[in-house]
């Protein structure tokens, strides 16, 4: 049969199907039936549902221009700029799956004194940026355009604290990576939105400020500069990073050559102070916090980007990553540090380099990443709340209901 004939045949079939299915398509469910259905079936267990981050409503925000939010969680599944193990393109999926026990009704963060999913902020899982794996230059442009678009939307709810910081009025972006190079288009977008250099707080075993010639001085192209070890070099040279307020923390990388020249060469490396993983032994987690805040300050007019390479954690805690380095922090230490930083004026954050192929069956790395995202989202919400909620790091609880204003009416299950 010639192709056109089968095409006509298909059309006829399709027509029949449409007229058959027409009846009943638009029937409206009466209100009382709807109510009954919701009572009966509108329940989720931590292990049910299509895996969005923390069971948040998933929306493909990039194709829904009228979708607004206060905080967007966005996946950046991209890993073609890594120098060692690939696989972080599967990071967003793994982190979402590992976030399953973060249900809005059961997510009161005792360390912070607030449930970020039941407070003032509308938080949406905006899905993934459909990033090409075939052309890194194009991928970079896709990510930049996506971050710029998502970060330029209107916010929904005014933070109770009011408009006293530069971040107010713009939604905050939490990116699930992806390899670490996704931070470059994110910083370009934030620089465009805030029109000033951004303070970068960078948790990582590695510097990521390396001049791309470190990888190969001879074989250079524009694209070799966009990689997961040089993006802060590029970002600094582009003037996106504030050189006097930024910090690396958790460092323990080997350096190039025969001395600590990577630290002392003039260049963007100097735009960051360096806190090493081992410093925690002398300083303790709260000493690390103090050192960071001394550097970053708490200026309400200065936007801060928090970039978390999951390899800041020890490989015993987070093996599923691209460039593991033994001797890192534990999850507990890192959570405590993050909680100590809740007053930073975070406008964006990323959790990157989760590579589930190297993770274990207990999803240790993805669980850590989901918890880090939870702590960051908690801080973003908490910073918009007027009253002092305390939490373990403010003062000890003497009132179990501190900070909880809404009734826990839709708590369906204990976290057992
Ligand atoms: C930070 O320092 C680099 C050079 O090390 C420079 O190119 C860049 O413009 C500086 N950034 C700002 C915001 O001044």
Automatic annotation (TrEMBL):
Catalytic activity field: agmatine + H2O = urea + putrescine
Molecular function in Gene Ontology: agmatinase activity; metal ion binding
Cofactor note: Binds 2 manganese ions per subunit.
Family, similarity comment: Belongs to the arginase family. Agmatinase subfamily.
Pfam family, one: Arginase
Protein name: agmatinase
EC nos: 3.5.3.11
Signal peptide span: 1-19
Gene3D superfamilies in the record: Ureohydrolase domain
Organism per entry: Penicillium steckii
GO BP terms in the entry: putrescine biosynthetic process from arginine, via agmatine; urea metabolic process
Names of required cofactors: Mn(2+)
PANTHER family: ARGINASE/AGMATINASE (PTHR11358), GUANIDINO ACID HYDROLASE, MITOCHONDRIAL (PTHR11358:SF26)
């Amino acid at each position: 049969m010639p192709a056109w004939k089968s095409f006509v045949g298909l059309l006829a079939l399709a027509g029949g199907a449409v007229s058959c299915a027409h009846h009943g398509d638009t029937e409206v469910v009466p209100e009382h039936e709807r109510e009954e259905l919701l009572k009966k079936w509108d329940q989720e267990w931590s292990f049910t549902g299509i895996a969005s981050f923390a069971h948040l409503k998933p929306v493909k925000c990039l194709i829904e221009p009228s979708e607004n939010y206060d905080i967007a969680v966005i996946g950046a599944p991209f890993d073609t700029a890594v120098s060692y193990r690939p696989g972080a393109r599967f990071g967003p999926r793994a982190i979402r799956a590992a976030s399953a026990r973060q249900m809005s009704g059961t997510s009161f963060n005792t360390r912070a004194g607030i449930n970020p999913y039941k407070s003032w902020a509308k938080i949406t899982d905006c899905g993934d940026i459909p990033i090409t794996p075939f052309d890194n230059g194009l991928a970079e442009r896709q990510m930049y355009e996506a971050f710029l678009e998502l970060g330029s939307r209107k916010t929904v709810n005014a933070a109770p604290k009011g408009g006293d910081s530069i971040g107010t009025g713009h939604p905050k972006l939490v990116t699930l990576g992806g390899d670490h190079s996704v931070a470059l288009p994110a910083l370009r977008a934030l620089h465009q939105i805030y029109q000033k250099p951004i303070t970068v707080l960078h948790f990582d075993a590695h510097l990521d400020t390396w001049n791309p010639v470190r990888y190969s001085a001879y074989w250079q192209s524009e694209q070799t500069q966009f990689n997961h070890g040089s993006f802060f070099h590029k970002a600094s040279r582009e003037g996106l990073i504030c050189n006097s307020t930024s910090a690396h923390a958790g460092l323990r990388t080997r350096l190039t050559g025969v001395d600590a020249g990577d630290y002392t060469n003039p260049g963007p490396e100097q735009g960051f102070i360096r806190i090493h993983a081992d410093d925690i032994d002398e300083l303790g987690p709260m000493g690390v916090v103090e050192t960071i805040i001394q550097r970053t300050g708490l200026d309400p007019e200065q936007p801060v980007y928090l970039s978390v390479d999951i390899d800041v954690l020890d490989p015993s805690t987070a093996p599923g990553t691209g460039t593991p380095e033994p001797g890192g922090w534990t999850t507990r230490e890192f959570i405590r540090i993050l909680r100590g930083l809740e007053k930073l004026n975070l406008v964006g954050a990323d959790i990157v380099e989760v590579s589930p192929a190297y993770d274990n069956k207990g999803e240790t790395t993805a669980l850590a990443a989901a918890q880090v995202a939870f702590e960051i989202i908690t801080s973003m919400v908490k910073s918009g709340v007027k009253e002092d909620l305390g939490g373990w790091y403010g003062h000890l609880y003497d009132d179990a209901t501190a900070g909880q204003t809404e009734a826990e009416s839709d708590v369906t299950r204990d976290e057992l």
